[in-house]
Description:
The structure is a single chain. It is built from nine helices and no strands. Residues 4-8 have low confidence and may be disordered. The chain has helices at residues 13-27, 32-46, 48-53, 59-64, 68-87, 97-103, 106-118, 134-155, 169-200. The chain is globular. It folds into two domains: 1-122, no CATH class; 128-201. 68% of the residues lie in helices and 0% in strands. The protein is mostly helical.
Amino acid sequence: MNMSNSGQQSISRDQVLVAHAAEMIARTGFSQDDFAQALSSHLHRLIPEKATSKDVPDFKLLAKGNDSETFLRSSGAWLRRVGRWLSGEVDLPSWLEEAWVDALEGDFQEHCLNELASRHGLTGARALIGDANPVGVFGALVARLGNTVSLGSEILADGRIDIEDLDKLPEFVDRLRSVEARCSELRSRAESVLHQVNTSL
Length: 201
């Protein structure tokens, strides 16, 4: 899903975030309640003081307590807040953005990251930190490359990319961004190792 138009910022950043979350909720078994709980968890992991000051319930902490009334009241209020953000009734505050993206799953998260990055001419590549698994990233690259080649073959069957391909181009661009991001992650890891070797010589 590409909410913005080839680098043009036709919709706002928060609308991109909301659109990807809404699509994930609509297309998967991940409910709005599941998303709200995941968002809360990520907020308390990333910015615990801010989450507490903004009355974001810590469901792990609430579950440890034995106060079902407080749990229900807190969760109900939080679900309503998330619902208002998802419906567009209330603008999404900027302090939520990173946790919001983290609460997205799989391809929905990746597409959102790639779209947000592409608005600034960047890719949605993430650094492979510490013991992060480059084999997993390579596997994701191979899978995405296969999907990209398949769609690219359909588009280029007539030897051109033109207006006739318009219905397939947004998905093709998304797939190309995804491949580019995985390549960038692997290239960065390889360059890091080369740099370590070169500086130790």
